[in-house]
Amino acid sequence: MSNNHNQIDNVSLIPLGGVGEIGKNMMVVEVEDEILIVDAGIMFPEDDLLGIDLVIPDITYLKKNQERIKGIVLTHGHLDHIGALPYILKEINVPVYGTKLTLGLLRGKLKEHGVLSDSYLKHVYPGHSVEIGQNFNVEFIRVNHSIADACALAIHTPAGVLVYASDFKFDQTPTNGQMADIHRLAELGDEGVLALFSDSTNAERPGYTMSEKVVGESIDEIFSNARGRIIVASFASNIDRIQQFIDSAFENNRKIAVTGRSMINNVHIAKELGYLNIPDGMLVDMQDLSGLNDDKIVLITTGSQGEPMAALTRMARGDHRHINIQDGDTVVVSARAIPGNERSVGRTINKLLKRGAEVIYESVSGVHVSGHASQEELKLMMNLVQPKFFVPVHGEYRHLHRHANLAKEVGIPEENIFITEPGNVLEFSNSNGQTAGSVKAGRVLVDGLGVGDVGNIVLRDRRLLSQDGILIVVVTIDKKGKNVAGPDIISRGFVYVRESEALISAATSRVENALEECEENNVTEWSVLKSKIKNALGSFIYHKIKRRPMILPIIMEV
């Protein structure tokens, strides 16, 4: 720590994502002229982001202040906390600190993106801390979550201690036997905590979140009753859950095979790092399944969210390379639909049932429990840590709002509770907390290899195209602006030309009239011609069939 900490009495925090939304978690912590970044996640696109693959935080502010950044610390290995790093580390070269599994999963992601990583990935054990720059000492505190090696962070700064507890629950009987370090959280509370940032995902759920152990019992029961093949779908990152599948398969004398790219990658990484224990000879290749009896097979797959290209979805559609769903198969969907994915999950379940499988999913059985704290655990976290200021994070506005109410219930004064949004600058000192301005924040859209090249105008065009289609008008004019060929009208996604000949020929004569008018008035400026064509055609078509297709005039000169 720097010696002048007597003068440093305030710390600034800027969320660049993860508040007012689920995903793209990223928090910037500033003390004096040093910056520490907590997490860097992605968000999956909502339905209105047509064709977009991922959404990442806008890091304009970080790029401007690059030389002040001392490091990035990670809470755990889920993509909504580490997924943006392949994009960000191309712009900002700083060390990244995390636990073993978190860095293992990150290394896999960086390799996929061709980012060289090992030089700046720094491994920290839960229960240990690390000095970063002059002003930060970051302590990794074990918590329970739906992925191993998840930690809350205690960030010790000259202005006070910040506890960042994004994505946690208190599981009294965790399957890996590793309890959350409640003692350390209580000690920090006794020593004094300036601010707590806490997970709001389940702030609307009363009571406690059930233990992961409950899932193990349900899975054991399903596995011992199933007569045919068993296909289980889960999040590829939920290593403890995958271990439970393996244990149950072993008990019931079944072999396991793994399908789906992210599942294969994660099982490989977790096995190498010692987080998965697979007895020798149990893991078989997909190609070798045909040689086994149905009652000897467990298949672990991706697709619990109904993603179009995931393995389970392909099985449901009937176009998976190795597996055709048949009567007698038992399919277990061991995950809850992420908000927004309910319809695609429902569609997948319907298709599997039609193909003759028995499908077991969360709403009808105990095959999934949440990795996030419910109301009583959220209150427990606040009571352990006893923060002066409280900021709910990791949730949509309604979740943050409910969490803020819980904070009032446990006695945190209302003026010390801050519901914030991306880009807002929070300033805390021992004497007061306030919102002090804002920085540029928002979303950057990733489409294929393009990062940020699809903006609102492109999205608006995609929306228009998807709703009303496009009409392309091709006209050839000579030097004097006289129409020598065309107009030809091509329609895509608007009407089928052969069945709408009358409409298209009426539209063609509208364009001809507009061009004649331009010729009479000696208008040869292309931009004017184009807007005349657009106006003539647009109003005519809306008048005729109440649709507004995109109109794209193309003018060629001979």
Automatic annotation (TrEMBL):
Major site of localization recorded for this protein: cytoplasm
Enzyme active site: 199 (proton donor), 372 (proton acceptor)
Positions bound to Zn(2+) 2: 78
Binding site for substrate: 236-238, 368-372
Subcellular compartments: Cytoplasm
GO annotation terms (biological process): rRNA processing
Domain Metallo-beta-lactamase: 23-219
Tree of life domain: Bacteria
Gene Ontology MF: a single term: 5'-3' RNA exonuclease activity
GO cellular component: cytoplasm
Cofactors required: Ca(2+); Zn(2+)
Residues annotated as binding Zn(2+) 1: 76, 80-81, 145, 167, 394
EC nos: 3.1.-.-
Keyword Zinc: yes
Cofactor note: Binds 1 Ca(2+) cation per subunit. Seen in 1 crystal structure, it is not clear if it is physiologically important.
CDD domains the record matches: RNaseJ_MBL-fold (cd07714)
Binding site for Ca(2+): 51, 53, 447
General function of this protein: An RNase that has 5'-3' exonuclease and possibly endonuclease activity. Involved in maturation of rRNA and in some organisms also mRNA maturation and/or decay.
UniProt family annotation: Belongs to the metallo-beta-lactamase superfamily. RNA-metabolizing metallo-beta-lactamase-like family. Bacterial RNase J subfamily.
Assembly with partners or alone: Homodimer, may be a subunit of the RNA degradosome.
Record HAMAP family: RNase_J_bact
Name listed for the protein in its UniProt record: Ribonuclease J
Species name: Selenihalanaerobacter shriftii
Taxonomy of the source species: Bacteria, Bacillati, Bacillota, Clostridia, Halanaerobiales
